[in-house]
Amino acid sequence: MIYLDHAATTAVSKSVREAMLPYFSEDYGNPSSLYLFAQKAKKAVEDSRRSLAGLLGINPREIYFTSGGTESDNWAILSAFYSAMGKKSGLSCSDAAGQKQRQPHIICSAIEHHAVLESCKFAESLGARVSRIPVDREGFLDLEALEQAITEDTVLISVMTANNEMGTIQDLRAIGEIAKKHEVLFHTDAVQAFGQIPLSFSEMGIDLLSASAHKLHGPKGIGLLVIRKGVRLPAFLHGGAQERGFRAGTENVPAIVGFAKAAKEAFATMVEREQRKRELQKMFFRRLLQEVPGMQITGVNPLETSEENRLSGNVHICIEGIEAESLLLLLDQKGICASAGSACASGSVEPSHVLLAMGKSHVEAYSGLRLSFEEDLKEEELEFTVEAIREGVERLRRE
């Protein structure tokens, strides 16, 4: 099998599994219990929190563990909305002069992950107003439109660090400056970028950040939300005093330990992995351009422009006259795992909202193919994949 869907999930590494094992069967105590046995689990949780905070250069008390990126995104967006509803007495009523109702206003990009888009849609159902800012043909946010969209009722800007389909990396520093200028909270979904590219809270002006372990060889079902010191949001889950009362529920100790271990390894090897993946990415694009007629590189073209604006392990293409799902079935028959876009949208009959937002037609959007890989991909596996894509395209065009 050639696994080329690392943007969807990754295998748990051996070292991460070994770090997690004791907390399944030996040190399995509840971290909230007072006796010494349970305090081993408590220490593991807090050591992991400190380790992750150190990687990001923040205070450990700014990290809150969640069940994954989706929960973290929901927490950031909905809690910002709930907080605004509680703080602004005039949000749900017109003033005496008959002015329009004031509503909490949320801004996001048009290419956000569904965890953000659906959270915003739910907030709308509760009375929020949401602005979805357009992007250009490479997937970059229109910063001028972003700033123009801000009003006195804007409570949150949510823009992903790197797109899960296209790999486009946004200018967080510029977005953070705009948010700070207008005193608006800035949230970034960094699920695809965490452990892949450097992130600096102080330089980028980030207030809230979502991340997930299973994208960097950690376990599924564990993530984090960073809430910068000074940002006050209401509790998201109610019940117990875990996570300082903001996120009730017994901590998933093995997963938390695994997350910290996976992140430590990812950050330690980031530079070396990045260099190798850049080489493979360029090789992939060159070979596909040579072998597959009617193929277009979608998003940033690292063969022509700054490669730093696209995740190194991402290859996304559109192929004229081909439906990606049909091609994926042919690739699967050859033992190649790839994707037509976000794993969360699998089974959907709708074309990629990301490609549509970037100006692609519906026909083009149905033809999008995503290959996401890591530094251990062998060149012969790359060549085999290119050949399989060429053969699959030729077969589909004959039928």
Automatic annotation (TrEMBL):
<protein>
    <recommendedName>
        <fullName>cysteine desulfurase</fullName>
        <ecNumber>2.8.1.7</ecNumber>
    </recommendedName>
</protein>
<keyword id="KW-0663">Pyridoxal phosphate</keyword>
<keyword id="KW-0408">Iron</keyword>
<dbReference type="InterPro" id="IPR000192">
    <property type="entry name" value="Aminotrans_V_dom"/>
</dbReference>
<feature type="domain" description="Aminotransferase class V">
    <location>
        <begin position="2"/>
        <end position="383"/>
    </location>
</feature>
<dbReference type="GO" id="GO:0031071">
    <property type="term" value="F:cysteine desulfurase activity"/>
</dbReference>
<comment type="similarity">
    <text>Belongs to the class-V pyridoxal-phosphate-dependent aminotransferase family. NifS/IscS subfamily.</text>
</comment>
<dbReference type="GO" id="GO:0046872">
    <property type="term" value="F:metal ion binding"/>
</dbReference>
<keyword id="KW-0479">Metal-binding</keyword>
<dbReference type="InterPro" id="IPR016454">
    <property type="entry name" value="Cysteine_dSase"/>
</dbReference>
<dbReference type="GO" id="GO:0051536">
    <property type="term" value="F:iron-sulfur cluster binding"/>
</dbReference>
<keyword id="KW-0411">Iron-sulfur</keyword>
<dbReference type="InterPro" id="IPR020578">
    <property type="entry name" value="Aminotrans_V_PyrdxlP_BS"/>
</dbReference>
<dbReference type="InterPro" id="IPR015421">
    <property type="entry name" value="PyrdxlP-dep_Trfase_major"/>
</dbReference>
<dbReference type="Pfam" id="PF00266">
    <property type="entry name" value="Aminotran_5"/>
</dbReference>
<keyword id="KW-0808">Transferase</keyword>
<dbReference type="InterPro" id="IPR015424">
    <property type="entry name" value="PyrdxlP-dep_Trfase"/>
</dbReference>
<dbReference type="InterPro" id="IPR015422">
    <property type="entry name" value="PyrdxlP-dep_Trfase_small"/>
</dbReference>
